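Standup notes
- DV: blocked on the single-chain target, sequence here:
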Amino acid sequence: MVHWKKGCRIAAAALSAALLLQGCAQGNTGSTEAPKEKEVAAPKINTDPVTITIWGNMSDQLFQKTVAEPVKLKYPHITMQMVSSAQNKMPDLIASGNVPDMIADSMAAMRTHMDNKLLEDMTPYVQKYKTDLGVISPVVLDSVRAISGDGKLLGLPINGNIIMMYYNKDIFDRFGVPYPKDGMTWDEAYALAQKVTRTEGGVAYKGFAFQDFYLFTANQLSLSFVDGKTEKSVVNSEGWKKLFETYARFFRIPGNGVDDKTFGTGLDQFLKDRTVAMYVTSSIFSNLPDAIKTGFNVDMVSLPSFSEAPRTTTQVDGGVRMISTTSKNKDQAYLALTAMLTNEAQSLIARSGGFPVMKDPKVMEQFGLDIEALKDKNRLGFVYSKPAAPSAFKTKYDAAAVAIVRAQFRKMVLEPNSDVNTILREADELVNKAIKEAAK
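- DV (later): unblocked, structure below
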């Protein structure tokens, strides 16, 4: 070893620095292989004080806790300022030339901002600042990429959506039926619903109800609405047939049916009337405290899954942060955004009831710790399942297709003798018609 080091010193006097690195690294074998390109250091960050505006809809408390404070902690020179989306509509901001530096919205809303040419591709910034995107759950990041298209990254995910099955423990106790559990299949949930759909003491108890929006838009089977290549509807398929039949059968349980007036009113029946045993929806944390104070004996489990995709919840359709193309502080806005993707910042989001996007299980395990209504509840049921993979195609026609598909499902539920094949064929025709109209 002593002689080898001496040889390297002699070589240093005769060879260039690049060849020295090559020769010493290879034990002075005399290889003529070209030296590796020197790694470029991350650029120096401009620390001049700057205010970054962000357009979105969240309480001041949540904004301070999950946005302003994490950014200030990592980048003291950056001050975040909220621009309320409730009070400042985006079309008005565009017209006045006052679009904020950053946009906070759902993944589903990205398409609208894309159509308005407001979203900056973050790929160059990821490369410039050497951001490690590997800390983000791949399926979540892939979901944003799928919407962005063309190999772009038009936003970074901050939190995901959470669809759960909440249940009234008192109804299950009344009928001596075991509680639902994490990891159930839809078949098992259907069997439970049959057991707790009863009339007793003049009260009609329903076994199951749901808020259908996410179960279609972010469906667990990763089904597309429109083929992005052909721009034709793909809703008349075996996958959509399975989805429709799986959900519709709950409303054909004797005593669990709905009519034109009661379709979609399950939340009130669950929380206020307390006559629904199981209810599927996104987070209802804001509704739970008052209900629990008045004696509502509630708990929750993971969303039931399909047998071919066990322990799989809906696709990710949560919060994403985007940089506006009109921003004069794009680099600083990007840095602020990355500050929301540290384990510390994501832990704050998790503790506040948001679904974190990081791979680190320690972040996931902190879900709901700061939510009083989840104390002594099955809070880890929220992170029990993995998100479904993003559907193959995300198109500008999806919003219209979603409305049609949901309307056709409603029709199937309200018409007992309806045929699923006819329902989906009609949906297919209506979606294609909507695409043609939009193309004009």
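- Follow-up: Residues 1-40 form one domain.
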